[in-house]
Sequence to fold (286 residues):
Amino acid sequence: MKRSEQKEMMDLPGQPKELLEGNFDDIRAINHYMGGHRSVVRGLARLVQEQKLVGFSLLDVGTGSGDIPARINHWARHRGINVSIVALEPEPVTARLAAVLTQQVNSCYIPRTCGQMRDPPLTSLPSRGRKERGQRITPIFSHLPVLKEEQEGDLPRHAISVVRGDGGAPPFGPASFDFVLASQLLHHFSEDKIVSLLRTWSKVARKAIIISDLVRHPVAYYGIRMITKLFTRNVMTRTDAPLSVQRAFTVAEWRHLLRRADVGPLRLFSVFPFRVLALLLVRGST
Fold:
């Protein structure tokens, strides 16, 4: 199967908010049931254990709706590990969605599996637009702040902060985070762009870059095409899920591409089903 250069719907500007929100709801379900969270946490756990860390900071580039940071926070807190996460997202509608969902990390990690997403506590809403105590405020999106570019939103997020910004030019100084994470992000880009991104992130990370992504394979393509037709009516999910597989790389191609970036030692793992986990240790890290 040849790699596709076709852009995914989510990468095209001007997509309706409802379509994007439904697509990310589907992505959270896919990550939950098909191991998207588990591979990231296992890779991070390996690094934390090997380096004997009692805490760490992490930048999640292209966070989407923030479900991966929520899982990481849940895993770390239940093991007594101090964690500080910045979820970086350039798209304003998506960043706003992440701001809502990451507020709920204590009570509900995957909204689809927890039932209807609840409004956050009244005390956590911004002062503008606030109603009298005891009244419900709906819909929540009409009362959320629009996250300003390169600034954190004004909602409390426990250990997770949502920041609007470009992953190609992160608004952070050198060595600002222990780890930089890219989960199901890199397949959206050309090979040259991926190399450029990795080299940029290697300056921001003190210890390692963690990559979790898809593997291109006919079985994965036809499998996710069938699954999405059965469980969702969202046209973006039905289009982008199989296209994401077509835009991904084989394990051998991933290995060649990540070595080409030349940012440090590489450890690459095949993960079931049809995923790859890469740990790029930043040169000079301890």
User: Anything to note?
Assistant: Confidence is low (pLDDT under 50) at residues 106-147, 152-157.
